[in-house]
């Protein structure tokens, strides 16, 4: 049997996930700037939803790119 990983955001004690904190948000996107799923990132459901909303809001505000074009 495997044990569940603890949520890295819960362990770090981060109270608020803000769309302006792009360094944190970049840790939860792939190299093509897609949102990393929960089973890879290890975040809990509550923080995964907050991360996804913050990433989408940062994209809308042009702080993060939507996709990375490697042409």
Automatic annotation (TrEMBL):
GO biological process: translation
SUPFAM superfamilies: Ribosomal protein S18
GO cellular component terms, semicolon-separated: cytosolic small ribosomal subunit
Signal peptide: none
rRNA-binding is among the record's keywords: yes
GO molecular function: small ribosomal subunit rRNA binding; structural constituent of ribosome
Keywords: Ribonucleoprotein, Ribosomal protein, RNA-binding, rRNA-binding
Role noted for this protein: Binds as a heterodimer with protein bS6 to the central domain of the 16S rRNA, where it helps stabilize the platform of the 30S subunit.
Family from the record: Belongs to the bacterial ribosomal protein bS18 family.
Subunit relationships: Part of the 30S ribosomal subunit. Forms a tight heterodimer with protein bS6.
Entries under HAMAP family matching the protein: Ribosomal_bS18 (MF_00270)
Protein name per Swiss-Prot or TrEMBL: Small ribosomal subunit protein bS18
Native source species: uncultured bacterium
Lineage: Bacteria, environmental samples
Gene that this sequence comes from: rpsR
């Amino acid at each position: 049997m495997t044990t569940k990983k603890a949520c890295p955001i819960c362990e770090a004690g981060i109270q608020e996930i803000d769309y302006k904190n792009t360094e944190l948000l970049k840790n939860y996107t792939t190299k093509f700037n897609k949102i990393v799923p929960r089973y890879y990132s290890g975040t809990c459901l509550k923080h995964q939803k907050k991360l996804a909303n913050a990433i989408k809001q940062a994209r809308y505000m042009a702080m993060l790119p939507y996709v990375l074009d490697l042409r």
